[in-house]
Design a protein that fits this description.
Elements: H1 2-18, E1 29-34, E2 39-42, E3 51-55, E4 60-64, E5 71-76, E6 81-85, E7 89-91, H2 97-102, H3 108-125, E8 135-146, E9 159-171, E10 176-192, E11 199-219, E12 223-243, E13 253-272, E14 277-294, E15 307-311, E16 314-324
Antiparallel strand pairs: 1-4, 1-7, 2-3, 4-5, 5-6, 8-9, 8-16, 9-10, 10-11, 11-12, 12-13, 13-14, 14-15, 14-16
Length: 325
C-alpha cells in the first residue's frame, strides 16, 4: 500500500511538472530528494544569488531533467521555485508512459492527437487575413435619423427612416478596399395641418449610389473594425404628399422628384462565423441634399412650402451579413 501511494505521488508530481514549463524530449521533469547534508535553494543558478531558503535532508522536490551551470531548477511541495546544486540532489527516473496512463494521465501520443484535433477545430472558425480576400458582398438594413426640415413649415422633428441595400468591396491590399454601395431610403410621416386641420401622408424616398474606400483599422481572427468613406449621387430623391382629407379632388397627391448629392462615413464591426461568412454592425453619418425646388401641383402640396430643399442628412445605424471570397 505504501509503495502504491509513493508510486502515485511520483506520477502526479511528474504530471504536474510536465505542464510546468520545462522542455524535454519525453517528460519535462523528474522527482528528486535532497541529500543527507541538506541543500540551499537559490534565486538563480549561482551561489552568489539570493538565498531563498534552506532545504532539509530527504525533502522531496520536482527538478528539471538537465542542470544549468551545475544547478537544477526545482519546485518544492509548497510551490516555491528556485535553483539547487546538482550534487546536493538525488534524482529519480521520470515516470514511464504506462505509469502516467495508469494513474489517469495522458500519454504523449494522446496529447499529440488532441492537439491535432484542436488545430482542426480552430481552422474551421479561423478567419484568413485580408490579403487572402478578393471580394466581399454585403446585404444590409438600417435606420436613418433625420428631420427633413424646410419642406413643411413647423415640422423639424427628427424621426426614423429606413434603408436597405448592398455593398460590394474589391480588396486592393490586405487592409484597403474599393467599395460600391447602393441603398434605398424610405420615410413615411403622418402630418396634420394646424391651420386647416387636414391630414396628410408625407413620403420621402431616395436611391443613393456611392463609391469610396474602406480601411481596415483592426484585423483579428474572429473580428475586424473598418472605416469607410463614400460619396456619390442621390438618385430619385422624391417627396410625395397625399391629402387624406380631400375626397373631392381628382389629384390629392403631389409628387416632386430630383437628384442630389450624398456622402457617407461609416465605422463598422465584422464578426466572422467562418472564413467566408460574417455578420456586421455599422454606424455613421449620411449627408444627402438637393438643390432648391418649387412646390408641385395638386392638393397634396397644400402643406408644403412654396420653395424647399430636400435634406435627408442624419445619423445612420445598420446591420447585415457579408460573404467573402
Amino acid at each position: 500500500m505504501r509503495f502504491k501511494c509513493a508510486l502515485h505521488f511520483r506520477v502526479w508530481i511528474g504530471l504536474g511538472v510536465f505542464f510546468w514549463g520545462f522542455q524535454s524530449s519525453s517528460f519535462a521533469a523528474r522527482l528528486a530528494t535532497v541529500g543527507e547534508d541538506g541543500a540551499s535553494l537559490y534565486e538563480t543558478p549561482n551561489q552568489g544569488s539570493a538565498l531563498v531558503q534552506k532545504l532539509l535532508p530527504k525533502t522531496e522536490l520536482v527538478a528539471s531533467n538537465l542542470p544549468t551551470h551545475g544547478f537544477h531548477k526545482v519546485r518544492t511541495t509548497a510551490g516555491v521555485i528556485g535553483w539547487v546544486q546538482a550534487d546536493q540532489l538525488i534524482l529519480q527516473p521520470p515516470p514511464t508512459v504506462e505509469e502516467v496512463t495508469a494513474a489517469g494521465g495522458v500519454s504523449r501520443d494522446e496529447q499529440d492527437k488532441r492537439k491535432e484535433e484542436e488545430k482542426k477545430e480552430k481552422k474551421i472558425f479561423e478567419k484568413p487575413r485580408y490579403m487572402r480576400q478578393h471580394v466581399r458582398l454585403e446585404a444590409m438594413g438600417g435606420m436613418n435619423l433625420f428631420a427633413a426640415s424646410g419642406i413643411v413649415t413647423g415640422f423639424d422633428n427628427i424621426t426614423e427612416g429606413y434603408s436597405y441595400g448592398a455593398d460590394l468591396a474589391f480588396f486592393l491590399s490586405s487592409r484597403l478596399a474599393l467599395c460600391v454601395r447602393i441603398e434605398n431610403i424610405i420615410k413615411s410621416i403622418a402630418l396634420t395641418d394646424s391651420a386647416t386641420g387636414r391630414n396628410f401622408q408625407f413620403d420621402l424616398t431616395s436611391l443613393p449610389v456611392t463609391v469610396g474606400l474602406e480601411l481596415t483599422l483592426i484585423q483579428g481572427t474572429r473580428a475586424s473594425v473598418r472605416l469607410s468613406v463614400l460619396g456619390g449621387s442621390a438618385m430619385q430623391v422624391q417627396v410625395k404628399s397625399t391629402n387624406r382629407s380631400d375626397f373631392s379632388s381628382a389629384n390629392p397627391t403631389s409628387v416632386i422628384s430630383t437628384n442630389g448629392i450624398t456622402g457617407l462615413g461609416i465605422l463598422g464591426l465584422n464578426w466572422f462565423f467562418s472564413k467566408y461568412v460574417s455578420a456586421f454592425f455599422e454606424g455613421g453619418y449620411r449627408y444627402l441634399t438637393t438643390t432648391s425646388l418649387n412646390s408641385p401641383i395638386g392638393s397634396g402640396s397644400q402643406i408644403l412650402n412654396s420653395n424647399f430643399i430636400i435634406n435627408l442628412s442624419g445619423i445612420y445605424l445598420g446591420a447585415g451579413v457579408a460573404l467573402s471570397i
